[in-house]
Amino acid sequence: MGKWFIKMLNYGSQRKIEPSLKPFIKGFLNVLLNVLLVVTTLSTIDLKMTSLAAIIGATSLAIGLALSGALQNSAGSIIILIFKPYKIGDIIEAQGFRGTVSEVHIFNKIIKSPDNKTIIIPNGKLSNSLMTNFSTEMTRRVDWIFGIAYGNDVDKARGIISRLANEDARILNEPPIFIVVSELGGSSVNMAVRA
């Protein structure tokens, strides 16, 4: 049965099934099939199903209270799979960490930071907090602050910054580059540049 299911998931990968959905479905069906196996086995040995239902209900309540964090992470995983705020390969920032989503599991997501650290974030926290996805848009604005000395020509500095930005192939011409004096600092005139 397990080999058949894995074969079906691999067939689904040819039909554009979200890669993050595979581990979740495998884990969920594994738990479901194990529960069905136990119930079927107990019913074949002629155990009364009403008393079994009461035992399962009480046990489920105790386990649910003990594993409330894990259940919250499972619910968070379902919310994330429904709304799909990110996918494998996206660069995200969440819970104070930034990195590339590398794996998606039932209870957590694994991201790799730029300095090659593995960060595991529980799904419950991810579904209930702010998250920034840097991969959803094709372009991104970058802000810089350049300081020039008091007495320097502001228009000349603006021209130099504009020329350097126009020569850089990574900077788009549209929307136009924004260059203004943003602050008169203690030791410099600060110019804000947005491109």
Describe the 3D structure.
The chain is of the alpha+beta class and 195 residues long. Among the domains are: 2-66, no CATH class; 143-194, Alpha-Beta Plaits (2-Layer Sandwich), CATH 3.30.70.100. Helix content is 46%, strand content 23%. The chain has six helices and eight strands, in the order ααααββββαββαββ. Strands 4-3-2-1-5 form a five-stranded antiparallel sheet. Strands 6-8-7 form a three-stranded antiparallel sheet, covered by helices on one side. It is elongated, with a radius of gyration of 27 Å.
Keywords:
195 residues, alpha+beta, Alpha-Beta Plaits, elongated
What's a concise summary of this model?
Helices cover 46% and strands 23% of the residues.
**Number of E strands:** 8
Order of helices and strands: HHHHEEEEHEEHEE
Strand arrangement in the largest pleated sheet: 4-3-2-1-5
Structural class, from helix and strand content? alpha+beta
Unreliable sequence segments: none
What secondary-structure arrangement, pairings included, does this model have?
Elements: H1 2-14, H2 21-44, H3 49-66, H4 68-83, E1 91-94, E2 97-104, E3 108-112, E4 118-122, H5 123-127, E5 131-133, E6 143-148, H6 154-167, E7 178-184, E8 189-194
Antiparallel strand pairs: 1-2, 1-5, 2-3, 3-4, 6-8, 7-8
